[in-house]
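A protein record pairs a chain with a discrete description of its three-dimensional fold. The following entry can be read in just this way:
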Amino acid sequence: MISAVQKPINSGFTNKSETKDVLKNIDLNKKVAIVTGGYSGIGLETTKALVAAGANVIIPAKRPKIANQNLCGVVSEDNVIEMDLNNLNSVKSFTNSFKENFNTLDLLINNAGIMACPETRIENNWESQFAVNHIGHFLLTNELMDIMADVKGSRFVSLSSSAHSITSILWDDIHFQSAQYDKWMAYGQSKTACSLMAIEFNTRMRDKGVEGFAVHPGGIITPLQRHLEKEEMVALGWLDEDGSPSELVKNFFKSTNQGASTAVWCATNPDLNGLGGVFCEDCDIAKRKSEVDESLQRYHGVADWAINSDEASRLWEVTEMMIEKL
């Protein structure tokens, strides 16, 4: 089933709105937020924006030293806590530590991720993109739901991508144990999973006044592209042959700050009260793919499989079983 509210609300913002625009008149004083990957790319811009609005932002970081360098003058070093989404024991250690030190969590933004990387296996022979982008974040989110349930109005934001449109969940072979590994199929599946996590989170938490949102941040050149060769970025239309940004990038891609805006908007805007369980882009609720002009479907709109509540419920249960087997 697809939510009846999966349609734009004419928010007044655009694809080029910046974080300062969406946070105008928003006061986050005394609010506690967690931003995974909040020290690089759009995650860093998200952290800066929330801090500027008054929030106390905690950054789980795989590379604490680099995080502290990037966040110097933004947050205290005490706010940077080591956590590796590759390692579920590390995730559990972080959530235990957080709950020992904080009795509230207003905003959880799952921003960290990897993209189109070579085939790698972690934990229980899991494909790494699904494991990092989805399973690690799933455990983090699941462990923090009880503390979020005590804060009416708290919000969960899960970063997806236009790549979700590559594929739905590959139920028969999620971890590419039978089929040949395809880095883009794996990435697309992981980003569909990120969206479905927000949908099911919202279903499970809405009676407590807590809501979840999936976000496509837009096209942005960030360190996420580190595994791509120049030739591949040319083939994707992101670079010209000489290595300079293409016309597509110049005209349609966003700055890192603009890329952070939709997640910040979903985390804070009161116009979204009661509208959880939807996929958002360009600082508004996205249209379904079927409602988007065919020429724009590569980068806009949401595929039904990424917002289907039955798929979301199934994925939640399957992921719980994956974790239980460890």
Q: What stands out?
A: The chain has ten helices and ten strands.
